[in-house]
Amino acid sequence: MGSRQNILIIKHGAFGDVIQSEGALHDIRIHHPDEQITVLTEPAYAKIMDRCPWVDSVVRDPRESRWRLDKMWALRRNLKTLNIHRVYDLQNSSRTTDYFKWIFPGVEWSGTAPGCSHPHKAKDPKSIHSLRRMEGQLTDAGLACKHTMHPDVSWMANDVSPLLKEAELTSGFVLLVPGSSASLPHKRWPYYKELAECLITDGRQVVTVPGPDEMELCANIPGTTLTGGSFLDWFDLAGVVKAASYIVGNDTGPSHLAAHMGKPGLALFGSHTTVEKTGIKTDQFDAIEVEDLQDLSVERVYEAVKAGLTAHSNSV
């Protein structure tokens, strides 16, 4: 009697969604202070969850084809050994619904899987602001939500002062995030080069931190390109974000990271989704939403950035 119960949280990805789940993880930890909490996530995000202060252990799920029965049985065996008491399905996908039916029948389950014990009661959860969706799901499961709407991933930031010193940078630069998934070029605003020129003319230091498929993109943008000799991992990237005075980016993971580290900044959205639905907007982090990013002028973004920088400098 009195043995520690085991809780499983499922959050596969993508990067921005993993970042946004931090507040929900915090609230689940508060609701289950003495239980063992395990997160099931993609291998790419396991290191983030390993560092998360609200989590005890991490299981990697490579999301193999469900026709690979050998792989699916191995995952099932692995998860069954955890003796899970309750699952919080923050992914709510067709895959995780299959996990509910095949791996966890009879186990307490919070999510949208038909027949689960703690269903999210929203009529159309996928249409809701992503943070409100998680808040609604956890509230329906009986949790008090103090943090879900306000994720804070400041704990991700490494000390990058040696990297900044080597690049002759001081804290307070403007960080530009011109990339996004290479398969989604319509999410990329095309005028970061011109914005950087305006900011440098104003006497601002401008920094870019490219991912593996963004080197050529950043090569055309004036300022300092930080790579750390190859590419920065998420924790060094978070350290750079922490040192920046302002961040301007597309609807992509690093922009969500900045927003949920409490940093001031601006995200640029085309018609691929809505600002409201992503939940990226905070008290500090703003967004511009247009039909076509090609038509969003440098002047409009530059004026918004200047206003943001002025407001932030007046508030510190």
List the SSEs and their pairings.
Layout (H helix, E strand, L loop, with lengths): L5 E5 L4 H6 L1 H10 L4 E6 L4 H6 L5 E4 L8 H12 L3 E6 L4 H9 L5 E4 L6 E2 L10 H11 L20 H6 L7 E4 L14 H10 L4 E3 L6 H5 L4 E2 L8 H10 L2 E5 L2 H7 L5 E5 L5 H4 L6 E5 L8 H18 L1
Parallel strand pairs: 1-2, 1-4, 2-3, 4-5, 5-6, 7-8, 7-10, 8-9, 10-11, 11-12
Helix pairs in contact: 8-13
Structure description:
The chain is built from 13 helices and 12 strands. The protein has a 6-stranded parallel beta sheet. The chain has a 6-stranded parallel beta sheet with strand order 9-8-7-10-11-12, with helices on both faces. With 316 residues, it is of the alpha/beta class. Helix 8 (192-201) packs across helix 13 (298-315). The chain folds into 2 domains: 6-140, Glycogen Phosphorylase B (Rossmann fold); 160-315, Rossmann fold. It is 36% helix and 16% strand. The mean pLDDT is 93. The longest helix is centred in the C-terminal third of the chain and has 18 residues, at 298-315. It has helices spanning 15-20, 22-31, 46-51, 69-80, 94-102, 130-140, 161-166, 192-201, 215-219, 234-243, 253-259, 275-278, 298-315; strands at residues 6-10, 36-41, 57-60, 84-89, 108-111, 118-119, 174-177, 206-208, 224-225, 246-250, 265-269, 285-289.
